[in-house]
């Protein structure tokens, strides 16, 4: 799966180059891409490290000022596992979205992010939006949409394999509860 992700990432970079967006020219340091280890609801995320101190600025939200940096030198893109089951176009759309976050002034979904997104959408026929539409993307991929896979915990009965999902678990869940079907012991699978 990691290998496929790497390959698709390289395709994205190549396509960006073909429309004159050369990530080397943007001077944004390194980009690493990997599959998220946690079971995330989000399609992907981009972690920024090593801010370029010269690009410090303040953003006003309400009457507070927040320190921001326009450029970072280390970026780690994480793509959620479930995204990798979807159509290639949707995976690449997700990767491209996160690549834009690595560009200067693009670590939010502000004006500069939107500018790049619209260029890429128009010239490379992507469909980059601020947030994806899961139901639609599953339908496009011919996979039944099942909110279950986005739950945080998967619990399984050790005796009858009955499986269920929870977003939260009470303390000592395993000790307190038994399988509703057969009374067997439960195990947390993730
Ligand atoms: Zn984003
Ligand atoms: Zn059971």
Order of helices and strands: HEEEEEHHHEEHE
Strand runs, count? 8
- How would you classify the helix and strand content by structural class? alpha+beta
Q: How large a portion of the residues is in β-strands, by DSSP E?
A: 15-25%
Kindly state the percentage of residues in helix.
25-40%
Q: What gyration radius follows from the Cα positions, in whole Å?
A: 20 Å
Give a brief rundown of this model.
With 190 residues, the chain is of the alpha+beta class. The chain is 30% helix and 24% strand.
Write out key terms for the chains shown.
3-stranded antiparallel sheet, 190 residues, 2 domains, binds zinc ion, Zincin-like, alpha+beta, 30% helix
Describe this structure in words.
With 190 residues, this protein is α+β, with helices and mostly antiparallel strands. It folds into two domains: 2-140, Metalloproteases ("zincins"), catalytic domain (Zincin-like, 2-Layer Sandwich), CATH 3.30.2010.10; 151-188, no CATH class. 30% of the residues lie in helices and 24% in strands. The chain has five helices and eight strands. It has helices at 2-18, 88-102, 111-124, 134-140, 173-176; strands at 30-35, 44-51, 56-61, 64-69, 72-79, 153-157, 163-166, 186-188. The longest helix has 17 residues, at 2-18.
């Amino acid at each position: 799966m990691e290998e496929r992700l790497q390959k698709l990432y390289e395709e994205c970079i190549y396509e960006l180059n073909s429309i004159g967006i050369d990530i080397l020219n943007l001077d944004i340091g390194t980009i690493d891409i990997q599959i998220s280890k946690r079971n995330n609801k989000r399609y992907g995320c981009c972690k920024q490290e090593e801010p370029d101190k010269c690009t410090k600025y303040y953003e006003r939200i309400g009457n507070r000022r927040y320190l921001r940096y326009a450029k970072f030198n280390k970026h780690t893109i994480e793509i959620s596992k479930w995204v990798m089951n979807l159509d290639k176009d949707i995976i690449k759309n997700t990767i491209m979205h996160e690549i834009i976050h690595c560009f200067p002034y693009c670590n939010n979904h502000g004006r500069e992010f939107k500018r790049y997104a619209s260029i890429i959408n128009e010239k490379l026929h992507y469909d980059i939006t601020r947030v994806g539409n899961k139901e639609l993307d599953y339908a496009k991929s011919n996979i039944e949409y099942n909110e279950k896979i986005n739950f945080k915990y998967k619990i399984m009965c050790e005796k009858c394999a009955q499986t269920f999902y929870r977003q939260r678990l009470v303390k000592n869940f395993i000790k307190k509860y038994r399988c509703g079907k057969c009374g067997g012991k439960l195990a947390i699978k993730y």
